[in-house]
Every structure is written in C-alpha cells, then in structure tokens.
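User: HAD family hydrolase. Structure?
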Amino acid sequence: MMRCVLFDLDGTLLDTAPDLMAAANHVLQDHSFDPISLAKAQQLASHGAVGLLNEGFGSDITRFNLPQLRQQLLDYYAQNLAIHTQFYPGIEAALQWLNESGIAWGVVTNKPFYLADPLLDHYPSFASCQILLGGDSLEQKKPHPMPLYVACEHLQANPSESIYVGDAQRDIEAGNRADMFSLQANWGYLSPLERQQNWEPDHVLELSSQLIHFLKSHFDNHAAT
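Assistant: Predicted structure:
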C-alpha cells in the first residue's frame, strides 16, 4: 500500500514558465537581444536559468560572463516569483484530497531553496506541504536519489511505498533509483524530442487533471481507513 507522495515543483505542480520567461527576457532586453517566446520557455524551463539564457543569447553567449547573467536572471526572478505562475488544472484538487485523506506529501525540487520556499508561500494550497527540499538543501540533488530518501524518512514512509511525480528525466531517474513508484507528468516542460524518449517510468499521465483519479486509485484503502 502506498503511504506518501512527493512532487517535483516547476512543470509538475506549478506552471512557472511565464515568470521564468519574464526574468530571462529582462536580461535579454538589458543586453539588446530579442525575447524568447512562452512556448520556447515552456520547453526549456526544466533546464533552468542557463538553458533559458543559452536559448536567448545563442552562440553570442560566449561573449558574456554566464554566471553573472544567471545571477541577474535569478535576482529579477526572486523579486517576481508569482506574477503569472499558477497551478496546473486539477492540481489543487489533488492536494486537497491528499490532505483530507490524511496522506503525507511533500515537494522535492532542484530549484534553489531560497526561491522555492517563498514561492510556495504565495499559494495557500501548499500550507499542508510536510517537507520542502530544494536543489541546494542537501549535498546531492536529483537525479541522485538522496533527496527522495531524506524526504521519505521525514514522512516516515518507505520509498517502495511512495510515489514521486515529475516531468523531467532527472525526476524519473531519481524516483527509480530510490525504488519509488515513478510517475511521469507529461503536462510539464518536455520538448518534442523528450516526449519521444522512454525514461522507464512506472506510469505516465498526459493531463494534470488525471492526477487526482490516479491518486485515488492507488490510495483507496488508505483513504477508507
């Protein structure tokens, strides 16, 4: 029987691409480069600030100090975390059902903790999140399984009785390496090429609205007790 659920954040629970795009375009505009589109930002958001900057600057990126550009992007983003970011359809209902059913859940993301923590504070549905680990919270980050082990231990759940939901290859790899049930969120930030790849998840969902039905089917016994 499953005992807990852990989630990735960007591209899984929250659509953060619009605000990440705005931060990238702020940097691009500052250096007289054309902005990137939302569609492109959605494909690259899982690759972080560097992925967005590489797309925007192209081959000209070598003329700049990349760490400095990255910090400029993150500084702007930190001040504009939740302007256009919103939950994917059905996610809030799924989190509410987990809360009402007494099922432990948390967030394990590679987003730096100093960005992830205040971002969650903007959304009341995260008030019941029982653990948040950022990409810099531990010595290792995904695809290493360490963050998932630590989160499961905190929630007093065996990894083999836990689900990890994410939209990136590193999420599925981390879940599999931790011996968790890996659930691939195809509504997230996957490029057309990535959608054709087989990362060997235990299950794939195409729509975020399907998540609550999936969880109910795997936690029916728990919810009934």
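The CA atoms of residues 32 and 211 lie 42 Å apart. The longest strand covers residues 104-108.
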